[in-house]
Amino acid sequence: MIKPDDRHGHSESDDSAVIRRWLHRLVEPVVLFTVVALLVLGVIWGTTLNLVSMERAAADRTAMALVADTADTYEAQVVRALREIDTTLKLVRYSLDGRPAQEALEELRSRDMLPPELLFTVSVADARGNVIASSPEVDPSERNVAEYDYFQRAHEEEGMVVGLPRRNRGTGEWQLFFSRHAQVQDGGLAIIVAVSVHAGYFVSGYEPEVLGGDGILALLGNDGIFRVKRTGDVLTMGTPVDYAGVVGDGAVGGDATVKVNPWDETRRYTVARGLFEFPLTIVVGLSEEEHLAAAKQSERTYLWYATLASLMLLAVVTLLGRLSWRLQRSQTRIMEERVAHARRVEYLAFHDNLTGLPNRAYFTRLLTQGMQQSRRYGKRLALLFLDLDRFKAINDSLGHDAGDELLQEMGLRLNASVRESDIVARLGGDEFVVLLPEITDASQVTVVADKILAAVSLPFTLVAQEFRVTVSIGIALFPQDGEDEQTLMKHADVAMYHAKELGKNNAQFYSEKLSVDSLERLALESSMRKALENDEFRLFYQSKQDMFTGRVTGMEALLRWQHPDLGLIAPMQFIPLAEENGLIVPIGRWVFNTACRQNVEWQAQGFPPLSIAVNLSARQFLDDHLLQDIKNALNESGMAPELLELEITESMMMPDMPRTVRILKDLKRMGVRIAIDDFGTGYSSLSKLKEFPLDTIKIDGSFIQDLVHSAEDRSLTEAIIELGKSLSLTVVAEGVESIEQADYLRTHSCDQFQGFFINIPMPADEFEASVREQLLRLADDNPSD
Amino acid sequence: MRLTSSILGLLLSLMVGIASAEVVVVVSVQNPVEALSQAELRDIYLGRMNRLPNGSAVTPLDQREGSAAHRTFYREYMAQTPAQIKAHWSRLIFTGRGQPPRSVADDSAMADAVAASPVALGYLDSAYLDSAQVGDRLRVVAID
């Protein structure tokens, strides 16, 4: 509740706000329903109770009126009856004059001047109480009336005597007696004239429809004795009562009052009115209970209806209330859902679904903000572009689920490597970006870059296996590497590519020179696409010789690009690019076809069957059409499959072992040979090595290089040779460049060697010439061949 | 009350039969009436009707209360007990709504009174009727 004392010095707006708040609360369904329900209930019960009290009052009034009316009528009737009786008494008295009583009576009777015989008996008694005349005849047992009160009192009173009720000895009927004394006859003795009537006469007018079964119609003597009293059909005569108690101050014309009638303890609307001429009081009563019964009945009916209506109302209100509450709840829920949905949509618009990091759009905005801040406060800002190395390989070999896991984990590690104020975002694919606002020195960036490299270098567990991944990081600084967002991002991108070219798993700062390089790169890429059409690729061949005989056993086909403008481009400069943009596949196909065709051609020219080895790139290895391409090349050229050797690097095979084994088995089934290249440089476990269907193992040149001087390299080389031998593989040493190296290898049972010592890679015609020369030389040395 | 008396009346009439030989209803020969229904007879004697169906006036006469003829008549034609009659006339007289029929002393007085008036209606002992010389002045009314 509002406490006025709490609001000293409030303004008008506070007041209206409070009022509005209360109105608001009022309109709430719960309150509204309750209020309305209470109002309606109030109306129902108010009306009902009003009706009830009105009924009561009406019934009360009716009773009063009824009793009053009845009393008026009764009074008149009683008075008339009494007067008639009195007149009869006087008449008889008069006609007695000088005649025998019986004669007088007979005459009166014959003239119809006596009241109906059916009801009235007129009698004359002498001084001693003997009935000397009567009409009609009295019962013999009633012949003497001396002891009756009406007889005795008649002598004393002047007016008509209203006697006490008596039971007729003969008929048993209760009768009332009225008497007067007649004038004293000669002899000095008085005569009494009397009229008797059956008691019920005075209450014969009782109407049950009016007075009910428990009303009262009575004639009460002023002496306090009821002459006759009737309730329903029951007549009682002679009941004594306390006169004052019954009549009270009810004088002539008294109103009805509700009181308990003492003779039967019934509450009645009672009129007790004394008659003017006679010592009698009429009592008219209407039972309160009886009269009000009907009213009470309809009262109960009203109350019952009101209760029913109330219950129905409560039920309806409860129902409505519940419905509206549910409605409100569902409305609230819908609103909440909408809000949540809108929030989600907004979130999704700005965040990457997989990692939860800000997406490109959001990042751009953040970058703009960051740059504005830096500009304002003269701070520097660093942008780090991150690219997962060989992400595609993992995604292709392990599946997209593993790739997603990797990206998610990546996001987490990146976030862990930076401060709270730094921003990590995912631009898409395997590209991430880190924004370092408020940098003072480039060395701070290096620290962060190293942290990231370290964090990423820890093994990842994908699809329940451990993998190692690396990133390439390109760094651009604001404001020196660009004044606007696009320039900054582009330069960071260039720096990242540079990092990739420099062997990956490192971070590089942007420099002007890189732009130039990248331009070159772009040019290279676009011309690479045309290179295949323009037949700019060449295969160079490098021979492999048997360690002992020195015979050429085979060759390795190496890809070169004869660019019209840039000259001969080494594989290292364009193969990574080809890998990335997928051109490696059609180029590889060209390589297969060309190599097979060339070999067959040489054989046709008289060369002995020589094996030809082709390098496979990771992308080629995982390509779906690899087998088909090789099959096509073999079929079209007609070369025997055993002459084709596919060189696969160690690190290419390890990621998805089952898949690698499958592919190798498929290849083996075709009849081609498999060689594991650059052996020793990868991270393969030796136990896994025996699972692969291999033919050759090629020791990486790095081991051969320092063979002479490094004991370590020697033992490693020996170990590899041993390994190859134990697995029944042909062991080839790469990069053999000195006789010492060759001697050593020969001593340790290496099978073949390859390197500049023997032959450098050379184009087809040169190679052909070189081989031919060798063959001749050997034929000369060994004429038996 | 009325219901009780009607049932009682029916029972009595069933028990006793409609037209008993003891008391007969008579009018003057000057009176054209020859038959009345029992309902009409009752109404006349209870003061509810003071005109005959044909419109002419009728004055009922009673014999003295307590006489045999009176008792018989009221028992058999009216199917009323003396108490009922008394109560009936009590109410009517007290409330001023009627007067009971004039009563005559005996059969002889009844015969004289009825014969003398063209509007009178009475009853007497059939034995008297047979024996007396009044047969030519009176007509018996058939009550059904």
Topology:
The complex is a heterodimer of chains A (785) and B (144).
Chain A: H1 12-27, H2 29-95, H3 101-110, E1 120-125, E2 131-135, H4 149-156, E3 161-162, E4 166-167, E5 174-182, E6 191-198, H5 208-211, E7 216-221, E8 226-231, E9 234-236, H6 243-247, E10 257-261, E11 266-274, E12 280-287, H7 288-350, H8 360-377, E13 380-388, H9 391-398, H10 400-417, E14 423-428, E15 431-439, H11 442-457, E16 460-462, E17 465-467, E18 471-478, H12 485-501, E19 507-509, H13 512-533, E20 537-546, E21 552-563, E22 567-569, H14 571-581, H15 584-604, E23 611-615, H16 618-622, H17 626-637, E24 644-649, H18 650-653, H19 657-670, E25 673-679, H20 686-689, E26 696-699, H21 701-705, H22 711-726, E27 730-734, H23 739-747, E28 752-754, E29 762-763, H24 764-781
Parallel strand pairs in A: 18-19, 21-23, 23-24, 24-25, 25-26, 26-27, 27-28
Antiparallel strand pairs in A: 1-2, 1-6, 3-5, 4-5, 5-6, 7-8, 7-12, 8-9, 10-11, 11-12, 13-15, 13-18, 14-15, 16-17, 20-21, 20-28, 20-29, 21-22
Helix pairs in contact in A: 2-7, 9-10, 10-11, 12-13, 15-17
Chain B: H1 2-16, E1 23-28, E2 35-36, H2 38-45, E3 59-63, H3 68-76, H4 82-94, E4 102-104, H5 107-116, E5 120-125, H6 126-131, E6 138-143
Parallel strand pairs in B: 2-6, 3-4, 3-5
Antiparallel strand pairs in B: 1-5, 1-6
Please estimate the helix content of chain A. 40-55%
CATH superfamily of chain B: Periplasmic binding protein-like II
Largest sheet of chain A: 8 strands, mixed, barrel
Strand order of the largest sheet of chain A: 20-21-23-24-25-26-27-28
